[in-house]
Amino acid sequence: MNAPTYNFAYLDEQTKRMIRRAILKAIAIPGYQVPFASREMPMPYGWGTGGVQVTAAILGPDDVLKVIDQGSDDTTNAISIRKFFGKTAGVATTTSTTDATVIQTRHRIPEASLHAGQVLVYQVPIPEPLRFLEPRETETRRMHALAEYGLMHVKLYEDIARFGHIATAYAYPVKVNARYLMDPSPTPKFDNPKMDNCAALQLFGAGREKRIYAIPPYTTVVSLDFEDHPFTRYRFDAPCALCGADNSYLDEIVTDDKGGRMFVCSDTDFCEQRQAAGHHGTESAAPHKEKAHV
Amino acid sequence: MYVAVKGGERAIENAHRLLAHERRGDRDVPEVTLAQISEQLALGVDRVMTEGSLYDRELAALAIKQARGDMIEAIFLVRAFRATLPRFGATEPVNTGAMQVRRRISSTFKDVPGGQILGPTFDYTHRLLDPQLAEGFVPEQPMTADASQAATPRVTDILGRDGLIESSPQADSDAAVGDLTREPLSFPADRDLRLQNLARGDEGFLLALGYSTQRGYGRNHPFAGEIRFGEVEVEFSAEDVGFAVPLGSIELTECQMVNQFKGSTTEAPCFTRGYGLAFGQSERKTMSMALVDRALRARELGEEAEAPAQDEEFVMSHSDNVQSTGFVEHLKLPHYVDFQSELGLLRKLRQEFAEANEAVEMQEAAE
């Protein structure tokens, strides 16, 4: 039996070239979904294969990679993807947002602002923002070609008519470079403003749906809204229980079955940096010691 | 004090170690070998090769063993390996008419040139559990006879001679073969890509879709013109050599469905074709595939396309079980962040609902 051998960062060079071409086209047409011949990866479709292929295609030996899932470097799938590239590319990995040159993410944009030269790679499940309004790809491609986005505005308007405000909490649609309607992947809408005029290159990979799209650095990204119903961010109104941050997106941690809960930063690197810098929250009784079991 | 969850790496390693242990099962029970899987669970191996899109019995058997018998997981393993293989080119079209037939039946004619050959089949077995098979059963040697020298032409070719069935489209031998694993799929898709998609598609999905056409959702009454299973030779035209080089032979099952067609203003009524092809002995798969292939030709034949099986975007987008299982199972991944967003929204909506109701109650009380 032939023992398989793999190329640097797993994908063969031909495939990487094909993906890089798609990426270049995506950068040239911000927000446009470029079809690409997505490969079967050794992790399941829906588990980040699009992001993994984009990362594999752009990674060089000198890159420093950070992988986050739900804002955290320590969630199982983030660990799994980081290990994959550690093994197949041997690149340096980090949990620090500022030290990373390539950050692959699922469902969050880091709190720390990104700098020029960095690349943020998003894992995308459903790249088509119009998909839940129109299931047919043939139709939605036509709608994009004609910039016919009325359907989405009607959907948002219907939310307002029914609930008094727009009832989309994540994967909140944006308009890129005043042309293409784009799905930001299922990030909370709290993160939407970070995409606008961002210094880093933002690449989006959808493996199962075989699409790549991009936001080049310093591109205008506008969350859809109405003059009388402007876009608003949402965050639970509390400081982080660990670092006291009052401007970060929070995870809700259920602590018992009697309604007990606490809120902590979803971006673990951001939270740890703040704690290291001496910031405290209500639950971070320093110095660190184990909670006594009662 | 609360400490953010850490230790995922250890957990993953330990989980995989436990999986390896469970895969082995009771260590007092002898380990199953790849040869045993390949020989005794041959139809499972055939399915993994077909939907895994790679003709390699040994690797398919390994995948089944590694997947603990989970066929979709095994197919996924084979696909992921296949994706890393270099592509040298495409073989010459295989000639199923020259197949070394081991089984061949037609439901449209009582007898056909070359004869009806039942071969190894579950058909007409009585589905009674056989306790003899539990252990140590030695079956009788199969009956043998001299091989027939008669050719076994395809039944559809026989029909074709009288023009009763549409002619099989001849591919342009210089045109590149479509390959949806190399080029992104777009709609409408040509039949070569549709057939490739169906050949890789989930047997259960195609079975259900094919069945739905029989029950009236896009009905087009089919006859099993012919199902044949056997060995065909595979040849590869290497450019430097200048002629086709035989690579070896593979086992294939081919199903040609013969379907009604009422004709149109420009075409005389004739039978139409639905085609199914798969590695190994995969009859259910090829029959289902042929039904769905014919249903998907609705547009081309000017039929109304109303049923799911006739909708190429619906069928082709959902037929691949590696894609389907990935996306369904990705719901196991953490979704804390978007769930939190949704929680926030839901709490707000509920609060607004309560406030509005309160206001109404107060108003009613005041009246």
Features:
heterodimer, A: alpha/beta, Rossmann fold, 2 domains, 3-stranded antiparallel β-sheet, 7 helices, 12 strands, about 25% helix, about 15% strand, disordered C terminus, B: about 375 residues, alpha+beta, 4-stranded antiparallel β-sheet, 12 helices, globular
Brief overview:
With 294 residues, chain A is an alpha/beta fold.
Topology of this protein?
The complex is a heterodimer of chains A (294) and B (367).
Chain A: H1 13-28, E1 34-35, H2 49-58, E2 64-69, H3 76-88, E3 92-93, E4 102-106, E5 119-123, H4 137-145, H5 150-163, E6 174-176, E7 180-182, H6 192-195, E8 201-206, E9 211-215, E10 221-223, E11 250-254, E12 261-265, H7 268-276
Parallel strand pairs in A: 2-3, 2-4, 4-5, 5-8
Antiparallel strand pairs in A: 1-9, 6-7, 6-10, 8-9, 11-12
Chain B: H1 8-24, H2 34-40, H3 42-52, H4 57-66, H5 71-82, E1 100-105, H6 155-161, H7 191-200, H8 203-214, E2 222-237, E3 244-259, E4 272-279, H9 283-296, H10 312-318, H11 321-329, H12 336-366
Antiparallel strand pairs in B: 1-2, 2-3, 3-4
**End-to-end separation of chain B:** 53 Å
- What general form of chain B does the structure show? globular
Oligomeric assembly: heterodimer
Q: Based on Cα principal axes, name the global outline of chain A.
A: globular
- Number of helices in the DSSP assignment of chain A: 7
Structural category of chain A: alpha/beta
Biggest sheet strand order of chain B reads: 1-2-3-4
**Helical content of chain B, roughly?**
40-55%
User: How much strand of chain B?
Assistant: 5-15%
Number of domains of chain A: 2
Largest interface here, residues on each chain? A-B, 73 and 54 residues
Level of helix content of chain A? Answer: 25-40%
**Major sheet attributes of chain A:** 7 strands, mixed
Q: What low-confidence regions of chain A span 5 or more consecutive residues with pLDDT below 50?
A: 285-294
Number of strands of chain B: 4
CATH architecture of the largest domain in chain A: 3-Layer(aba) Sandwich
The CATH topology of the largest domain in chain A is given as Rossmann fold
Q: Let me know the CATH homologous superfamily of the largest domain in chain A.
A: Bacterial phosphonate metabolism protein PhnH
